[in-house]
Amino acid sequence: MVIDLNTAARPAFDLFSGFSLCATLASLETAGLLAELAATGRLAPDSHGLGAPLLDYLAARGIVEECGDRHRFTPLGDAIRADIGYLVWLSRGYGLPMRSIAEFVTGARGTDDHAGRDGSGVAVGSALVGARDLVPQALDLLDGTRVTRVLDLGCGNARFLLEICRRFGATGTGVDEDSRACAEAEREISAAGAAGTVSVRQLDAGDLAALPGIAATDLVVTFFLLHEILAAGRAALVDHLRGLARRLPAGAHLLIAEVTPATTEPGQLFSPEFTLVHALMGQRLLDAPGWHAVLADAGFTVAREVRPTMPGALLMLARRAG
Ligand SMILES: C[S@@+](CC[C@H](N)C(=O)[O-])C[C@H]1O[C@@H](n2cnc3c(N)ncnc32)[C@H](O)[C@@H]1O
């Protein structure tokens, strides 16, 4: 029997095209070229003559189609664009450490400095992901909550902080330890014309004494930060949250977004890769009961929680007890 390798299932080629498309689309998105293509049907400027072969490639993969002398996104292309943040987060944020993952296993490379991730790629990718799959649900969750002064720990590019402050007429401070994330945040704040009400500080969120204005804060936001503190152990995380609760005024709220760890369920869209990337940096994740227990130990009561559309994620609004 002769097996025709051209027609037999060769699943490695799904990964081959997936890798290439993920890297290509994330890069085009980051440079604003996907938006440009959607608006004009062209890839411009095209200083190296790469525009035509790139469009041919995207057409061959069903992302765009020719329309006269222009190109437009196909329904597949539109659906991928809607989730482009996940590709930016992975390819730009963690592409480099993921491509050398074996070196972390063998010990040739250490996981210090977050295994060499790109802080700006993580911040920009997270914000794009959040805009679709987290922010609408988070704003709903906050409905009816007093929000006059917001502190966003691990604020990334501060887009969510800006959105909350705009929605509630609040003032806000974002804190991020990564200089590239802070630079993105400064750009966003200035582009939004919000420099009078929202600011960003490059600080370690673990250093509670350094956090600005905490005693007057009625909402602390931590989206995808607390697992970073958990890397120092559960006791360190509880200590951190307990210290936060002690410094906040009575009735203050804490809004948390986290991704739960991968399970053995088939067909998980996001958690296995999210879990792996965080293991690479020496971080582990907690499931919903785990977060409830940590918050209770730290003096917070969960007031509301939802499962947002971000696969495997949870959103919790907790209140400082007492
Ligand atoms: C996954 S990003 C999320 C960004 C933003 N919260 C969002 O949802 O779009 C996590 C952010 O936390 C920041 N971060 C990690 N550890 C931190 C720490 N100890 N102190 C302050 N920021 C930290 C990272 O630099 C990164 O920008």
UniProtKB/TrEMBL annotation:
This is Methyltransferase domain-containing protein. Residues 150-241 form the Methyltransferase domain. The lineage of its organism: Bacteria, Bacillati, Actinomycetota, Actinomycetes, Pseudonocardiales. InterPro entries: Methyltransf_25, SAM-dependent_MTases_sf. It comes from the Bacteria.
